[in-house]
Each structure stands twice: as C-alpha cells, then as structure tokens.
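Anyone opening a protein record will find just a pair of labelled lines. The record below illustrates this layout.
***
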Amino acid sequence: MWKFPQVMDRMGASGSLVKMEGFPSGGNSTLVYFSCVDCAIEEGRVAASGGRIQREKMSIGPYGFISLAIDTEGNMFGLHSTQ
C-alpha cells in the first residue's frame, strides 16, 4: 500500500495504491472516492437511485470512514467521510 498525503484544510487530492482481494490490478481498476459529510447518508441515496452498496460504511482508522458503491452502469466508486 502507498498513500498520497492529504491536508484537510487545503485544496488538492489525496489517494493511495492498495491491493484488494477479488479485484485484479490493471484494466479498469481505478477507484474514485467522493468526499461527503457521512457515508451512511450517501449510501441511502445510492440505493434510492438504482445503484447498490458493495461495502457498507467502515472505519479506516484515523482517516475516517469509507463506503463502496456501484452505480447503475456497474462502475464502482467510493465515498469518504470523517464522521
């Protein structure tokens, strides 16, 4: 795993390179995360819009929480929140 730093009170994007079981590297393996106030709230919006939740809100330690969702076209994306 490799992390690109993030400064919460400044502009810019952070990121990381990780290996996830069940997801091979290469091809369409880029996962974009959208920042939100609370992942759990946005999970409800995904389901209501025809998408589905791949992984419900989970802690990533001092970095907050993430959820993984799949849109109506089958693309996976992430949600990130600090609460």
